[in-house]
Specification:
Elements: E1 8-14, E2 26-30, E3 44-45, H1 56-59, H2 62-70, E4 80-85, E5 88-90, E6 109-114, H3 117-123, H4 126-133, E7 138-141, E8 144-145, H5 154-160, H6 167-180, H7 185-193, E9 196-197, E10 203-206, H8 207-227, H9 240-259, E11 264-267, E12 269-274, E13 290-295, H10 301-313, E14 321-327, H11 332-342, E15 347-353, H12 374-381, E16 387-391, E17 395-397, H13 402-405, E18 413-417, H14 419-426, H15 432-439, E19 449-457, H16 458-463, H17 466-476, H18 483-491, E20 496-497, E21 504-505, H19 509-513, H20 516-519, H21 522-532, E22 537-539, H22 555-562, H23 568-589, H24 591-611, H25 614-636
Parallel strand pairs: 1-2, 1-4, 2-3, 6-12, 7-11, 13-14, 13-16, 14-15, 18-20, 21-22
Antiparallel strand pairs: 4-10, 5-12, 7-10, 8-9, 16-19, 17-22, 18-19
Helix pairs in contact: 6-8, 7-9, 8-9, 10-11, 10-22, 17-18, 23-24, 24-25
Length: about 650
């Protein structure tokens, strides 16, 4: 070993996707790969070679330690090896510790809001890591005293402070250690009756010491696994071997202190609160440098599946499709299910787990799900791409999406004019023209665009700082409906207009009753009617979605694709539950509520009749009379 410049590998355990920490020293490893629905890119997997990956529910991050022990050569035979978590880090730069609170009461592990680039560069500078090991064989977090958590001893803490654990397991651990390593008797008594321990299964050790520790650790844990019947354990109870690992590390360190067998250094640590992914997603294919991006919540998974099914059915073998789904709560097994559904040689599906990016969401005037805002952030998080094609997932692709990528987009955004807004502008009883002209400050109200399908020139979008401007506007001003309004207000018609066939909205029944078609100007009506014959993307933009309302416009096309997905039965079940809920709600639950709403409408129209004049007064008077008649009918039949 080169004592002046030893080789070091610090493995970082990941069970879910979080910010990727990777360097010559920092080495990410996915744990539980043998049971995982998705294999993470850019890291080691703990089921490669000799492993205990299937035991991850019991061993937790210790499956990474076992893998390193049995596959050490694959790491390049480093002089030192260590282990951290994606969230819990060693502190190699004391200057980063300020007035932060601690992870546990009175602990040496300090909270950090997030792992910023500055934090990573300073804390994990190779020279700082190397310097921290000079003169030492082992590095661990400073010992923690569980009396700070109200426990009298380590045994008492295991019995009362760790969820769903049985103190008999703790006692069995100590018995097992004495069975195989009787020279640990003093340490066993100290651990049982004392209150200090070494947490988190985190350490850095010289190679020979690491092998010695693993022999000790896994000898005891293997015997524990045999002795404890975990067949009916809950997932929390099942983690018992991982907890035992912390106690075994404590015994090993305490024994070294007593016997002076190796030199130990104890240091502080950090607990990272926001571990959002690094967004380091690069293009999968050499060409094109474009991503197809969607946003999806857990609830929308089946409908995303239908959307993706239509996309791949129109995909051409000579084109590549690099699909990225932005999400925050889609389970790993569902991600795997979707990937199996559509992935092929020229179709890639990846998921970008997005943390809470809306620090000022309480100030935003529009209350929508976080996924509604992801289209704003997509270009910022996917800067490795030249262009992004963003689509909502309540669409059906009726043509090859690769054709859209061939369209020139010199402006920050390309989109289709919103034909339904054109109809709203023509409704004589509404004030949408005033709203678009005054509230949105549009130069031409008829150029209002729908943001359900947009092409983004990433460089130009970032250069114009559009995401920041839109969010700033949303915090200062209330809009009627959506992020779409604010986006239109910021770009102010300075966009590239797409063929309307790329975002053709269906005409729903309530729109027909409101005479939307007749409210459109002649040019737009002719265009809408013409595009209906062969739309490239069908957008079910209104609230009456085809998965709940089979009689709505173009619903049969949506269901044609739904039948081919692995979610068809679930979609049907949801439909049945929705129909049952509607019937129950109408007949029983909302009878009095329906009357109340009707009566409120009657009072509203009556009031407006008295405070308006001219044509408006005439319309309100007609509505008032109709509402009055309905109220009287209700009373007669109730």
């Amino acid at each position: 070993m080169n004592t002046n410049n030893p080789t070091i590998k610090l493995l970082i355990s990941y069970h879910d996707k979080h910010r990727l920490l990777k360097s010559d020293i920092l080495t990410p490893i996915q744990t539980g790969c043998a049971l995982a629905a998705e294999r993470f890119e850019g890291m080691l997997q703990d089921d490669d070679g000799e492993n205990i990956s299937t035991g991850n529910p019991q061993y937790n991050e210790l499956t990474a330690q076992y893998w390193a022990w049995k596959n050490y050569a694959k790491l390049g035979n480093p002089d030192y090896i260590g282990f951290m978590h994606y969230r819990r880090h060693f502190c190699f730069d004391e200057s980063l510790i300020g007035q932060q609170s601690t992870w546990l009461s009175a602990s040496c592990v300090y909270k950090m809001p997030s792992a910023t680039d500055d934090y990573l560069n300073r804390n994990f500078h190779p020279q700082k890591i190397s310097n921290s090991l000079k003169g030492y064989d082992c590095l661990v977090l400073k010992a923690y005293d569980v009396t700070n958590l109200g426990s009298s001893s380590n045994r008492h803490h295991y019995a009362t402070g760790i969820p769903e654990q049985n103190v008999a397991t703790f006692d069995l651990l100590l018995e097992t250690v004495l069975k195989f390593f009787p020279n640990y008797e003093e340490e066993v008594n100290s651990l049982k009756n004392g209150s200090e321990q070494y947490l988190c299964n985190m350490f850095i050790m010289k190679k020979d010491l690491f092998f010695q520790y693993c022999q000790f650790l896994f000898t005891v844990l293997a015997e524990m696994a045999k002795q404890v019947d975990s067949s009916h354990f809950t997932s929390q109870q099942n983690r018992f071997l991982g907890y035992m690992g912390e106690y075994l590390l404590s015994l090993f360190i305490k024994h070294a202190y007593r016997t002076h067998s190796f030199r130990i250094k104890e240091i502080n640590g950090f607990f990272i609160e926001d571990t959002g992914c690094s967004y380091d997603i690069k293009p999968v294919y050499k060409t094109p440098f474009s991503a197809i991006v969607m946003a999806c919540s857990r609830e929308y998974i089946p409908y995303l599946s239908v959307c993706l099914q239509s996309l791949v059915e129109h995909a051409h073998i000579s084109s590549n499709y690099d699909i990225v789904v932005m999400e925050r709560d889609i389970p790993a097994e569902e991600k795997g299910r979707l990937k199996r559904q559509i992935e092929r040689k020229n179709v890639s599906l990846r998921f970008l787990t997005v943390p809470d990016l809306l620090a000022d969401k309480q100030k935003i005037k529009i209350k929508q799900l976080p996924e509604s805002y992801y289209r704003l952030f997509a270009p910022l998080l996917l800067q490795g791409y030249e262009r992004i094609i963003y689509t909502d997932c309540d669409v059906i692709f009726n043509d090859d999406i690769a054709k859209l990528d061939q369209i020139s987009c010199p402006t920050a955004i390309a989109a289709c004019r919103d034909v339904m807004m054109n109809a709203r502008l023509g409704l004589t009883w509404a004030d949408w023209k005033r709203y678009c002209r005054e509230d949105l400050d549009l130069k031409n109200v008829y150029d209002y665009c729908n943001a359900g399908v947009i092409v983004v020139n990433v460089t130009q979008y970032i250069k114009e700082n559009i995401a920041f401007k839109v969010l700033k506007l949303l915090t200062s001003k209330a809009f009627r409906g959506s992020v779409q309004d604010a986006l239109n207000s910021i770009v102010k018609n300075e966009i590239t207009y797409l063929d309307p066939a790329w975002n053709w909205p269906t005409l729903q029944m309530h729109m027909k009753r409101m005479q939307f078609l007749s409210a459109m100007d002649c040019h737009t009506l002719n265009l809408y009617t013409h595009v209906r014959q062969l739309p490239r993307i069908i957008h079910y933009a209104s609230f009456r979605k085809p998965w709940y309302y089979l009689q709505e416009d173009m619903a049969e096309i949506w269901w044609g694709y739904a039948r081919k997905t692995p979610y068809y039965e679930e979609i049907c079940l949801r439909l049945n539950q929705h129909e049952t809920s509607k019937i129950f709600s109408c007949r029983y639950k909302n009878r009095h509520q329906n009357y109340a709403l009707l009566y409120l409408s009657y009072l509203y129209y009556k009031l407006m009749t008295h405070i308006t004049s001219g044509k408006k007064q005439a319309r309100y008077k007609t509505a008032w009379v109709e509402a009055k008649n309905e109220v009287e009918l209700w009373r007669e039949h109730s």
